[in-house]
Amino acid sequence: MKFLRYLFFPITIIYGGIVLFRNFLYNKNIFKSSTFDLPIICIGNLSMGGTGKTPHTEYLIRLLQDDFQLSTLSRGYGRRTSEFQLADEESTALTIGDEPFQYYRKFPKIKVAVEKKRVLGVLFMLNKAEETEVILLDDAFQHRALNAGLSILLTDFNRPFFEDVLLPIGELREPKSSCKRADLVVVTKCPDNLTQEQEAKFYDNIPFEKENIFFTKITYKSIYNAKTNEVFQGNLIDYQVLLVTGIAKPEPIETYLKNQKVSFEAMHFGDHHKFTPKDVIAISKKNNTFTQPNKIILTTEKDFSRMMVLKAFEDLPIYCLEIEVEFLKDKNKFDNKVLDYVRTNQRDSELLEGEN
Hints:
Strand content: 15-25%
Distance between the termini: 41 Å
CATH topology of the largest domain: Rossmann fold
Helix content: 25-40%
Number of domains: 2
Largest sheet: 12 strands, mixed
Order of helices and strands: HEHEEHHEHEEEHEEHEHEHEH
Oligomer: single chain
Strand order of the largest sheet: 3-4-2-5-1-6-7-8-12-11-9-10
Radius of gyration: 21 Å
Number of strands: 12
């Protein structure tokens, strides 16, 4: 491992220099950032992934969707299309990506769109969904061509950005100092019994006022039939469970099942894995090795969004484990900061400044 660090060190230096120079050009206004006169909230991180952007985006959707015409804009990672897409009945994970499709499937009140160039995405969104009042940018902290009015930076409790290093040695996409561009920091995946000493570690290492640092944990909600949406009424302890995932960090789900004393076996695929007919066969064969009459296949909502494109999955007993985020403290303070920003930055004109 140390040998690999030495091997990749020159690449890390070069990569870091490129990122620093790019940020310098934006900071000095040599590269222009576009600004819109409606509330735009960015949810992102400094690392490669696995910090919980999707459940935190869903938290914001639940917070805002009843009072504002809400739209989400994502890159649409893993989709087979390249142009702007506004989700509709024809959309799948292949056309808009798994996370946007999950938002579309779960939240019918909102508009969901994807576009690699976020400034163009906002322009297209405002043209095709003129009623939009608030836009959530999913995973756009590094997309500096668009200047979000409120930036929320996520960092994993188990691997905070201030203990990480740049790619390819570590997982950081840009230097730790870039955290200063954020307005709020959320420490995700915290333990239930977070101590004052653990909190202090983050207060000491994140250059923010305490009132702008928040702590959340993952909570596991209902289990439901992926095809019918019917809530699972049984007890997982009475079932043999095959856990199938294609996410960055499946360990928390395994820990949850172990804590619940659930008998399970796991099949883990890579992050954003595109399931194939061969995968269906392998999953089915594995499920058939279970001898107990009560058995189910358990997956994440994000994974099921990608499974839906294959009809072969329809014959398998697939259930989704729904996850949400819960604030360990100061939930109302966080909500009010977001709501105050949105209410005081309502849209009343068009694009204020052009894209570089």
